[in-house]
Amino acid sequence: MSCKTCSSKTDGSPKGCKNNGTCGTDSCNKFTVFDWLSNMTLPSGQSQFLYSEVRFKNGRKDYFLNKNSLSLSVGDVVATQVESGYDIGMITLTGELVKVQMDKKKIDYSQENPKITYRKASQKEIDKWSNLRDQEEVIKVKARKYAIDLRLKMKISDIEYQGDGSKVTFYYTAEDRVDFRELIKLFAREFRTKIEMKQVGLRQEAARLGGIGSCGRELCCSTWLTDFRSVSTSAARYQQLSLNPQKLAGQCGKLKCCLNYELGSYMDALNNFPKKEIKLKTEKGTAVCQKTDIFKKQLWYAYEGEWNNWFLLSVDQANEVIKINKSNKLVSSLEEYTTENKTPIENKFENVVGQDSLTRFDKPKNKKHNKRRKINKHVS
């Protein structure tokens, strides 16, 4: 659900986000969390959990202790503790659900020296933070130019300023180890601030930059997915997908994370299927599995030497033949078990409003005018 400033105008056209992603409902930000414990009161005698979740640029989150007992709510811009100076972030979660998140990520909230939330950011600090964010794109272009001039095999994908402007973090990707000592000297001389280089993987780079996937929606890694699990080509094989790298690869160049989403359902469905390596032995010959249809629970077999003639069997029929073969008996032929192929019904669509014609709105050509032009040419 979006905030009021993101709604439509009176004429139906979209307003756009007037808060530039800093609305109170926090629906415009990445990795939003629905606090399903917000309407529940704490038991008597139990104090509120003092940690809060703070989001920084491009989904980077951290947890800070509200040591000063500030009245914090989702959407507040706060100044937080870092190694040197302070950083500016936005509150994305408070209360008991923060404890659940910290336990999930195995973060110790009983440590002696935790990170602290200093205060709510003043308007002066917010303006400074906004100006630094505006400079990041210009600095990124310069940084890439310096890296190219030094012929370094690395790609600077993103830049993040610390809230007080005392440090700049450069996120880069590289296949091998890069010696960027000269690059850091150039950065320090040009930008006159503390420089930190942080290498990220290709998946992390796609998560930070964001984008639209082939499904038409925002990338999972930049909206809700936080743990990157390994994806192998066997996931595509089990789902009977074509091993085409252009279709299976995401924007990061790796296999799509969504290949793992339905893999468990396919694995459960394949438990009843016989293995492809098992051959069906009949008096007519030995049959080999050629194709499987997981949704219809069907298999196609062909006799050795007669590869063009396929016989359709259901999963139960194939398992029945295998059971008979295990008792050292042969089936007469697959024709006894073959399921009749039903010809699919073709849907015939009538051209009611001319939807198949892409040029139906074009102006028709004036044939009479063309004939006159041809006549005039012949006369001349």
Overall description:
With 380 residues, the protein is α+β, with helices and mostly antiparallel strands. It folds into four domains: 90 residues, no CATH class; 74 residues, GMP Synthetase, Chain A, domain 3 (2-Layer Sandwich); 47 residues, no CATH class; 64 residues, no CATH class. It has a five-stranded antiparallel beta sheet. A four-stranded antiparallel beta sheet has the order 9-10-11-12. Strand 1 and strand 2 form a beta hairpin. The longest helix is centred in the middle third of the chain and has 27 residues. The protein is extended, with a radius of gyration of 32 Å. It starts with 50 loop residues before the first strand and ends with a helix. About 1% of the residues have low confidence.
Give the helices and strands, then pairings:
Elements: E1 51-55, E2 61-65, E3 77-81, E4 86-94, H1 96-104, E5 117-120, H2 123-149, E6 155-161, E7 167-173, H3 181-191, E8 194-199, H4 202-209, H5 233-238, H6 245-248, H7 263-269, E9 280-281, E10 286-293, E11 298-303, E12 310-314, H8 315-326, H9 367-379
Parallel strand pairs: 7-8
Antiparallel strand pairs: 1-2, 1-4, 3-4, 3-5, 6-7, 9-10, 10-11, 11-12
Structure at a glance:
By secondary structure, the protein is an alpha+beta fold. 26% of the residues lie in helices and 18% in strands.
Task: Provide tags for this entry.
380 residues; 4 domains; GMP Synthetase, Chain A, domain 3; 12 strands; 4-stranded antiparallel beta sheet; 5-stranded antiparallel beta sheet; alpha+beta; 9 helices
